Amino acid sequence: MSDLSRLFSDLWSVLWGMSLWVKIGFLGQAAFTARFLVQWVASEKKKASVVPVAFWWLSIIGGLVLLAYAIHNRDPVIIVGQATGLLVYIRNLMLVQRARSRGAKRTKKDQKDQGEPAELESTTRPHRVDSAAKKIPWS
C-alpha cells in the first residue's frame, strides 16, 4: 500500500469514527470558513473590498449549525458567541434588503420622471458586484 493510499485510508477511518455531532460541528465550521472564500473571490474580481450577500447567508448557516453543536455540547461560551453573531448577520441582511428597496424605489421614480429606463447606481445596491463583465453569481 502506498503512502498516499494509506493516508487516505487512515483519514477515512478517523472521519468514519467521529460522532454525528462532531461531523455536524465540522460542517458548520466549513460553512463558516466558506464565507471568507466567497468574500475573497468577490473582492478579487471587483479589485476592492466587498462583502457579497452570500457572505451573510453563509454566516447564518454556519452560525446556526455551530449553535446547534454548542447547545448539544452545553458549551455556554460558544452558545453566547454564536447567538450574538446570528443577530449581527440577520441585521446585516435586513440592511441590505432595505438599501435594495430604496434603490428600486429611486429607480422607479427616475424612470417615471425621465420617461426612460434608468440604470441602478452601484451605490444603491451595497454588497453587489455590478459590473456586467465581472458578475459574481452569488452576490
Question: What layout of secondary structure does this protein have?
Answer:
Elements: H1 3-17, H2 20-46, H3 53-73, H4 76-114
Task: Please describe what this structure looks like.
By secondary structure, this protein is an all-alpha fold. The protein has a domain at 20-104. The chain is built from 4 helices and no strands. α2 runs antiparallel to α3 (53-73) and α3 runs antiparallel to α4 (76-114). The longest helix is centred in the C-terminal third of the chain and has 39 residues, at 76-114.
Roughly what is the average pLDDT, rounded to an integer? 84
Overall structural class, as computed from helix and strand content, comes to mainly alpha
SSE ordering: HHHH
Please work out how many helical segments DSSP would assign: 4
Task: Quote the beta fraction.
Answer: under 5%
Share in helix = over 70%
* Span between termini: 45 Å
Radius of gyration, rounded? 21 Å
Largest sheet: none
Shape: elongated
Are there runs of 5+ residues with pLDDT below 50, and where? none
- Secondary structure: number of strands: 0
Compact description:
The chain is mostly helical. It has helices spanning 3-17, 20-46, 53-73, 76-114.
Descriptive keywords:
single chain; 139 residues; 4 helices; 73% helix; 0% strand; elongated
